[in-house]
């Protein structure tokens, strides 16, 4: 079979283009046709399903994917960070270097498996020193277990696991062989309030960026961690040497504690720094500086932005769409932040996408659950805009719009499948997907 023609009850090529029923043709991992149903016989018919672009999760830290449940939000944001860092230290104290790497490798594999099995094909992952691309798992030799009946499913699964029941393994390998695992956009993290540590992370990131593109990594960016965890001058010096095409990502305006520290040098961050013996006299970057730093790249992610002011939002908008804000709805709820400024961001024309953040602040890495939390928090949002935030807009934010984000000719066959109810119509499809099982 030179090509694979799949017919499905619905094909959501993009939030604006739904075929009912539709056909999609794949050849060697690439989509070569997407149409309403034709007279040509399909190789596979999925009569109770909708095909969607594989979702894109713009922000997580896969290294915490071994956590069974989120760490409690605690009394302050630095307290939670302390718990995350403390857990990492405790693990490395108990393990040899080799055991530590093996543990991280197993954790990354587990996280990627969780991401992929819930219908997400691309994940923006913040990686910390000494992460290496070789720590990522090879694509699994065995295909994910096919499901028996739609009722047993999570709501979204990768196409390859649905077709596992229908087609011989060699055909799947031929047409979907490249889509057996989620792909990573890795952002090496620059962090350190002391110059030595900060420079070490810059050098490590530099080496990663200079190496040939590794397998499993779709793209490499760089992530200055947050305005409270680094000094700006050395980071800017490093970033200014990089081409504008290298994506940047930074946690900005995440908590009120951060804003208090940046504006006044007081509050829980000051207490934490005093306890740790961190010198308190260094210049503190302001939110405006971080937005500026991000606008130095053609693709930048401002992560969280929970407490962006209207002035900040105007400044982001003036980047002309190169900076995208990443909203993590369930993490936002976990910390009990003030209502998210989604309406203001969208009104100003700022692209907004979704991320799960890590399992240290969210119960799992399921993007459909994030979408549903988004809709619950912002019921005014159209399902089309919501879906774009995890597909087309998200792929663009990571610089992958040529190969991901919609089901279109020439793009990767990165496809998610939803099982749908009998009563679903073209008009109600997206709404029912986003509102969850009834
Ligand atoms: Zn994060």
Automatic annotation (TrEMBL):
Pfam families reported in the protein's UniProt record: Amidohydro_1 (PF01979)
Stated name of the protein: Adenosine deaminase
EC code(s) of this entry: 3.5.4.4
UniProt xrefs under InterPro entries: Amidohydro-rel, Metal-dep_hydrolase_composite, Metal_Hydrolase, MTA/SAH_deaminase
The species this protein was found in: Aureliella helgolandensis
Residue ranges annotated for the Amidohydrolase-related domain, each copy included: 51-418
Keyword annotations: Hydrolase
Enzyme class: hydrolase
Source organism superkingdom: Bacteria
């Amino acid at each position: 079979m030179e090509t694979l023609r799949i017919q499905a009850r619905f094909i959501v090529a993009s939030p604006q283009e739904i075929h009912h029923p539709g056909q999609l043709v794949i050849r060697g991992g690439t989509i070569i046709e997407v149409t309403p149903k034709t007279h040509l016989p399909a190789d596979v018919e999925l009569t109770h399903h909708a095909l969607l672009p594989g979702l894109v999760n713009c922000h997580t830290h896969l290294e915490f994917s071994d956590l069974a449940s989120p760490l409690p939000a605690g009394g302050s944001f630095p307290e939670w960070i302390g718990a995350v860092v403390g857990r990492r230290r405790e693990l490395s104290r108990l393990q040899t270097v080799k055991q530590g790497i093996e543990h991280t490798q197993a954790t990354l594999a587990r996280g990627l498996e969780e991401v992929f099995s819930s219908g997400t094909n691309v994940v923006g992952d913040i990686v910390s020193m000494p992460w290496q691309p070789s720590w990522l798992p090879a694509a699994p030799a065995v295909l994910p277990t096919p499901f028996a009946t739609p009722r047993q499913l999570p709501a979204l699964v990768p196409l390859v696991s649905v077709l596992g029941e229908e087609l011989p393994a060699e055909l799947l390998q031929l047409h979907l062989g490249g889509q057996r695992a989620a792909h990573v956009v890795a952002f090496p993290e620059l962090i350190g309030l002391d110059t030595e540590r900060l420079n070490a992370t810059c050098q490590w990131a530099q080496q990663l960026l200079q190496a040939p593109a590794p397998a499993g990594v779709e793209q490499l960016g760089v992530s200055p961690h947050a305005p409270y965890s680094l000094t700006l001058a050395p980071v800017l010096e490093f970033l200014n040497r990089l081409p504008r095409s290298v994506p940047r990502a930074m946690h900005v305006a995440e908590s009120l504690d951060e804003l208090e520290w940046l504006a006044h040098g007081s509050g829980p961050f000051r207490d934490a720094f005093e306890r740790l013996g961190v010198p308190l006299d260094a210049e503190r970057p302001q939110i405006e500086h971080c937005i500026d730093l991000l606008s130095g790249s053609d693709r930048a992610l401002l992560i969280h932005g929970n407490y962006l002011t209207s002035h900040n939002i105007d400044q982001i908008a003036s980047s002309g769409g190169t900076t995208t804000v990443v909203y993590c709805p369930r993490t936002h709820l976990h910390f009990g932040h003030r209502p998210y400024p989604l309406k203001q961001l969208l009104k100003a024309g700022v692209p907004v996408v979704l991320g799960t953040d890590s399992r240290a602040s969210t119960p799992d890495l399921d993007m459909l659950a994030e979408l549903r939390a988004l809709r619950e928090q912002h019921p005014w949002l159209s399902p089309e805009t919501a879906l774009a935030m995890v597909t087309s807009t998200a792929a663009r934010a990571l610089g992958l719009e040529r190969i991901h984000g919609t089901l279109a000719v020439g793009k990767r066959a990165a496809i998610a499948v939803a099982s749908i109810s009998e009563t679903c119509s073209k008009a109600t499809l997206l709404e029912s997907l986003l509102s969850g099982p009834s």
